[in-house]
Write a structure and sequence with these properties.
The protein is built from ten helices and eleven strands. It is α/β, with parallel strands linked by helices. The protein has a single domain, classed as Metallo-dependent phosphatases (Purple Acid Phosphatase, chain A, domain 2, 4-Layer Sandwich), CATH 3.60.21. Bound molecules: manganese (II) ion (MN).
Length: 257
Amino acid sequence: MTSAQLARPTRKQRVRTLWVSDVHLGTRDCQAEHLAAFLKRYHADKVYLVGDIIDGWKLRSGIYWPQAHTNVLRRLLTMSKRGTEVIYVTGNHDEFLRRYSSLILGNIQLVDEAEHVTARYHRWLAFLGDSAYEFTLTLNRWLNHWRGRYGYGYWSLSAYLKHKVKSAVNFISDFEEAIVHECAKRGFNGVICGHIHHAEIRQMGEVEYLNCGDWVESCTALIEHWDGRIELYRLAEDQARQASLAQAEATSAEPVV
Ligand SMILES: [Mn+2]
């Protein structure tokens, strides 16, 4: 394959699973164009939406809904029509969707949490970070502390970092430990979540911890390939790779003197 073909893929890449979370459609920070472009590149058997897809809290206080946000929903509906199983793990910011779910979500499934079996026959739990604090006092304390203090409806890592770096680090480790503890207790090999806007793949004891990150700042997602390998996609790395391929292509196209 030539570098030109690599730089401009015309066919969709077939993958087993995609996971995205924390898109926050309905807010100005949402990177909807990038997400729509990302989704368009793949043909996936399953897509999991792991919480905070539409920001219902923000919508109540004034509508911000450009075409690009509609395009993301359209893309998901199109994928679902063409055979992709789209599973929407709902969360506290998406709660209002449950009331309208049959109306606007077509054949997208709404679930509290989802069990996913990878191609390697590992059982993964895809669920929302914000349901984890219901059974974890430590995390609950941090969330309530933070929410009460800054009056936000959802967790924003960057906003918090500006205020108190050390507490943010504690929050994240408490969050991860709470989730991993729950999964080990229930016999899962791994967990896939979102919520803290911090993408990661990390082994924590018996359990592999995967976080989808977000499409507000970092533009990250998780991709399961056909062999069961799970990749952490980062838009910035992808763009850098595309740029260097384009450069290599330009260089090789220069006339030899
Ligand atoms: Mn979020």
